[in-house]
Write a structure and sequence with these properties.
Elements: H1 7-11, H2 16-19, E1 25-29, E2 35-37, H3 39-43, E3 48-56, E4 59-69, H4 70-77, E5 92-97, E6 102-106, H5 107-110, E7 120-125, E8 128-136, E9 150-155
Length: 156
Amino acid sequence: MAKPFAFTALFFLIPCGAMAAETPLSVSGLVAHPLRLTRDDLKSFPTVHISTAQASGKGPVVLDCTGVALTELLDRASLNIGKDKNANLAHTLAVTADDGYSVALSLGEVDPGYGNAAPVIAFDCGGKPLDAPRLVMPNDKLAGRAVKGVVSIVVK
């Protein structure tokens, strides 16, 4: 009778962090320069710190996060939405998480000259690094748009 192969013993020798590669955050759609950003890439942008409290289905959520202003990412990608007056008011962003959850933002609400919602793509919250970026909408009363695990931002 053949001896069983000792595959499972080898499996447990691999560190957990080595098993899954970091999924980069992509910024695409109506942009001149699509981006694929790792956590280290995000940390190379100017950072902002926000603290906000929002209501969720699980009760109040306090978010104390550090990250990059969404407008910084959009500036780096260079929006390609035309030159018509107020062109940004006719376009949206689809922000999608690794689990498929998605929210839409209008470019007008993100624009500092209009809505100035000041969304942040956080990479640290509560003083701890996040496994994946998180969208934080500091002026929202509800946490429904605080998307965990952001993997893509598409300008439409």
